Amino acid sequence: MSFFGDLIDFLLPERCAGCGGEPVLLCGGCAAALSGPARPARPAPAGLPPPWTVAAYDGPIQKIFSAYKEHGRTALAVPLGEALARAVDAAVPEARERGTPGGPGPPPGGSAAPRGETPVVWVPSRRGAARRRGHDPMRRAVAVAVRRLRAGGVPVVAVDGLRQCRRVADQAGLGATARRANLHGALEAVPRAGLAGRRVVLVDDVVTTGASLAEAARALRAAGAEVAAAATVAATPLRRAW
Ligand SMILES: [Zn+2]
Fold it and tell me: What is the pLDDT of residues 126-159, one digit of tens each?
């Protein structure tokens, strides 16, 4: 975005983040693109079940993500989080675990998810991205999704369970093999999240080649967790990325 582009954005009333049409957060047509039922994205990333997803990552959806992540339209966390909630809701039955009555609780001082609640763990942003953007888009969207699901009686809990342990290059423009190499070993589980032995739903904003989800799943497995299901807001259409 150029200086003049930023200036024009600042001076004009905000318009639909998807199409730039009506002076609303999202017009009816662009909101509808996020309102479909959850479906499995195919093919599945290596070592993972097919992620449940809601939207095709093209046209207005790409613009909505860009407005949300890079241009500070944080109110989009609500429609994006609600779309993610539908994908997670579809994924939860694959991941459900039973509570352990009388069993050991979370470690003292830890932030582990209570037994009987399915941990929802998101793929973290690249280092420094949240600072540069001024917000952490996935954390915010996951919070909306989990709040919505819990209000509907679905026992899920957001767990900040992954972190980057080394720098990686921007994935944009890399092919599938280069993406895997760029990401391998880049993530690790947060020990105090207490995910060992847990069945988790892994979430991300978009699945493209699946390299990010596969690396996140590897890191969670290395910490003793089982990635039982995955969910994303959007998936890159098959013909373009797989
Ligand atoms: Zn629109």
Answer: 877 878 888 899 999 999 999 999 999 999 999 9
In angstroms, rounded to a whole number, what is the distance separating the alpha carbons of residues 61 and 234?
Answer: 8
Nearest alpha-carbon partner for 76 in 88, 61, 95: 61
Average pLDDT over residues 45-58: 90
Alpha helices in 17-159 (DSSP H): 28-33, 60-69, 77-95, 129-133, 137-151
- Residue type for position 137: P
- 84-112 pLDDT, tens digit per residue, is 999 999 999 888 876 544 444 444 444 57
Q: Tell me the β-bridge partners of 187.
A: 164
Gap from CA of 130 to ligand 1 centroid (Å) = 26
For ligand 1, the distance from its centroid to the CA atom of residue 21, given in whole angstroms, is 6
Given this model, what pLDDT does residue 98 score? 61
**CA of residue 209 to ligand 1 center, whole Å:** 27
Q: Give the distance (Å) from ligand 1 centre to CA of residue 34.
A: 11
Give the Å distance between the CA of 63 and the centre of ligand 1: 10
Indicate the pTM of the whole model. 0.86
Residues composing the chain: 242
Longest dimension (CA), the chain: 62
Q: What is the pLDDT of residue 2?
A: 66
* Domains located in the chain, CATH noted: 14-98+113-241 (3.40.50)
